[in-house]
Amino acid sequence: MVKRVALVTGGTGGIGSAICQQLHDDGYQVVAGYYSGGQHDKALAWQASMKEMGYEMAIAYGNITDYASCEACIEDIRTRFGSVDVLVNNGGITRDITLRKMTPEHWHDVIATNLTSVFYMTRLVVNDMLGKQWGRIINISSINGEKGQFGQANYSAAKAGMYGFTKAVAQEVAGKGVTVNTVSPGYIATSMIMDVPEEIREQIRQGIPVGRFGEPNDIARVVSFLAAEEAGFITGANISANGGQYMH
Ligand code: CAA
Questions:
Q1: Fold of 5-235
Q2: Catalytic: 155?
Q3: What does the domain layout of the chain look like in residue ranges?
Q4: What is the pLDDT of residues 79-96, one digit of tens each?
């Protein structure tokens, strides 16, 4: 049987790697999208380390803030593996700083990478999905899109924007077998939270009822659930996985 193709943007990062591994275990042809400022060696090293662990991952280069680059990335995947069946919009950055010091660059970098990219990539795969009458689009948002976060006006706005995008597109494609959902991770033990000063990080950890930061696998399992054939009745939804840090 031909494998379904799953593209994970930011696939070589902390949460991205776990999602790639989980989807590989689930039987997909997994493609990890990467940019890394054009550091191809880094992605190749990631691919080699995955292979050592028994994972045959494909990688595809693309700058998700640039529509032409996204187009080239999707075309490359289409040529090598066929059209994308499962898109996980996971790539993202932080530029944490209080609003009074935030520059237009801090703002635009985060909106472009975390939100506009979701439009670009989804736009570029959706017609193939509609043509096949099957598809899964899973947008990785954040607890901080749900509740806001001190020092993250840009990031919180981008992540909150994903919910509106998800719910609008979900309505447009629901009749054609394509689902669109968000997953909202809490604080997951990756390099992204290591950028938060230690004292603040510890305060945050103390505010998580389960008493620990999440693991990348905690998110990968939710993505796997939403990507499954059996999840076809779930669309326009958001699943929070945050250790109880925010309940609403
Ligand atoms: N609530 C209220 N006040 C706060 C605060 C909070 N949560 N955090 C800091 N402050 C206060 C400080 O106590 C300090 O007060 P004083 O001036 O009275 O001493 C003041 O705000 C600091 O203000 P500054 O403008 O000088 O800010 P800074 O440059 O020192 O640091 C910051 C600002 C970099 C944003 C820092 O607060 C920080 O890193 N916060 C954490 C941001 C965060 O949670 N990021 C998440 C990254 S992980 C991620 O994003 C993944 C995901 O999806 C969850």
A1: Rossmann fold (3.40.50)
A2: yes
A3: 5-235
A4: 999 999 999 999 999 999
